[in-house]
Amino acid sequence: MAIPLHRRKAGVMTHSAQPLWPGDTRRAVELKNVSRYRHPLAFYVLATAIPWALWFTAAWLSNQPNPSQTTIAVMTGLGLAGLAAPVVVAIWFIRRDGLTRDVLTRLVAPRGTRAWVWLAAVALLPAALLVATAISIPFGYDLSQFEFRNGFSFASGLLPAWITLLLAPVLEEIAWKTYGTDALVSRMKVLWASLVFGVVWVLWHVPLGFIKGYYQAEVVEEGAIHSLNLAVSLIPFVILMNWLYYRAGRSVLVAIVFHLAANFGNELFLTHPDTKVIQTALLLVLSVIVVWRDRELFLTPPARRA
Question: What pLDDT sits at residue 258?
Answer without folding.
Answer: 98
